[in-house]
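Example record

The entry below shows one chain as it appears in the dataset: sequence first, then structure tokens.
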Amino acid sequence: MATRGNIIVVSAPSGSGKTTICRALLSRMEKIVLSVSYTTREKRLGEANKEDYYYVEKHEFDYMIKCNEFLEYANVYGNWYGTSRSIVEGVLSGGEDVLLEIDVQGGNAVKAAVPDAVLIGILPPDRDTLRQRLFARGRDSKEDIERRLDKAWKEIAELQKYDYFVVNNDLETAIRQMECIMRAQRSRWVRMKGVVDLILREKGE
């Protein structure tokens, strides 16, 4: 008997390795789907529509908000991002976990809407390491990096409301810790109740 999937939210400051860890989990774990967000930001070189994001105009995004089509949405660095309610529900009802790689503002909104969602925060080991990683990416100006660092500590303070934390000091260790958390969630009573009920009904027959 298939059980309903879990909502797994992963949030982290820029440069903490969130995307790398999430991609590794998708390749290692079965029955898990990455939720592709809607966004109003411009498509970057090498990105593909419906794979990296659903790229929409601001008026389209506003219309989706009006129609209550988002499970959560937020403005990040001047661009809007949102998670489709119908896409998430479709994955969950099929018995698969849905992975939401979103910011802490969005994560808290998901938790408010779906209390049994699992929120995981990924942390850098220290400020210097985070700074080095941001510079190594080569994507942002020095001013942008300083802005991201300032925001990082505010985000880490907000992450204290999350359920689990993984410090990404060693990438492989962080990936394994994340996998352990996610597999443990699949065995919680709230997820296995349908299976237990079915076994008990069969005993009575």
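Notes for this example: Helices lie at 18-28, 58-66, 85-93, 104-113, 127-137, 142-158, 171-185, 189-204. Residues 193 and 199 are 10 Å apart (CA to CA).
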